[in-house]
Every structure is written in structure tokens, then in C-alpha cells.
């Protein structure tokens, strides 16, 4: 593949990902969750369904423990998460979604479905599933995190 082609292809993939993040965030915001940023959705994906420690959240987001702790403090103040005793480690605290956080996560799931409807209309359901399978084969494993 020629380097110009590779850059163009990479730009298309990055734009598609960014477009999905923007569409999901816009829809979630339109449904009343105006006090969140897209990064919070990446955090929620790690916290659902069973919670995580601040250290686990920091590793998931690829940020320092201090930055993750500050985000958790913010989300506690906004009512999306709470800290609980860790069931297996008396020294650790578990960060879990509140009902408000779970409701926001459900709104994000509906937003993702809505964001993909134009893709399905353009490509067809079968081709969209094939594209998803193709991308799953080449995408790196590990946590889904924002591009800082």
C-alpha cells in the first residue's frame, strides 16, 4: 500500500471512530446528561456492571491514579457513581455506577444504536456486520479508551 493511501485509510478509520463518539455524546447530552464529557462514557464502560477500583479505572483510561481519582470525585458529586467497600480487599474501595449512572449507560446504548443506523442504511445490515467482524480481527485487544 502506498503511504498516501495508508494515511488516507487511517484518516477514514479515525474519522469514523470520532464520528461515533461525537454522535453518541450528542445524543446522550440531548437526553439530559449535559454535565458529562465523552471520556466519562469510557469510564462508565469499565465501571459497568460490577465496578472497579480507581487503579483499575486509571489503567483502563491510561491516566494516572490521581487523574482517575479526580474524575471519580467529580462523578460522585454529579451523582453518577459511588464508592463502596471492596468485597475482596478491605484496603480498597470499589467505584460503582448509581442508578443515574446506569440510566446514562442505557441512554448511551440507545445512542450507539441510533448512531449506527445511517451506517446500516448506507451499507446494509449484512455488510455492516461483516465490516464489524473484519475490524474486530485487526483491532488491538484491550480496553476501549479515549485517544488523548
UniProtKB/TrEMBL annotation:
All copies of domain HTH marR-type, residue ranges: 2-140
PROSITE patterns assigned: HTH_MARR_2 (PS50995)
Pfam (any one): MarR_2
UniProt-listed GO biological process terms: response to stress
One of the record's GO molecular function terms: DNA-binding transcription factor activity
InterPro entries found in the cross-reference section: HTH_MarR-typ, MarR/SlyA-like, WH-like_DNA-bd_sf, WH_DNA-bd_sf
TM regions (residue ranges): none
Record-linked SMART domains: HTH_MARR
Full protein name: MarR family protein
Amino acid at each position: 500500500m502506498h503511504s498516501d493511501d495508508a494515511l488516507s485509510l487511517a484518516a477514514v478509520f479515525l474519522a469514523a471512530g470520532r464520528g461515533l463518539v461525537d454522535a453518541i455524546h450528542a445524543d446522550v447530552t440531548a437526553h439530559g446528561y449535559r454535565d458529562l464529557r465523552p471520556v466519562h462514557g469510557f469510564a462508565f464502560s469499565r465501571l459497568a456492571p460490577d465496578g472497579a477500583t480507581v487503579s483499575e479505572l486509571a489503567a483502563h483510561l491510561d491516566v494516572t491514579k490521581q487523574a482517575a481519582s479526580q474524575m471519580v470525585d467529580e462523578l460522585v458529586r454529579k451523582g453518577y457513581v459511588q464508592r463502596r467497600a471492596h468485597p475482596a480487599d478491605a484496603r480498597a474501595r470499589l467505584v460503582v455506577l448509581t442508578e443515574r449512572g446506569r440510566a446514562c449507560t442505557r441512554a448511551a446504548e440507545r445512542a450507539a444504536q441510533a448512531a449506527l443506523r445511517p451506517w446500516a442504511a448506507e451499507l446494509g445490515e449484512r455488510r455492516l456486520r461483516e465490516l464489524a467482524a473484519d475490524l474486530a480481527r485487526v483491532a488491538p485487544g484491550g480496553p476501549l479508551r479515549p485517544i488523548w
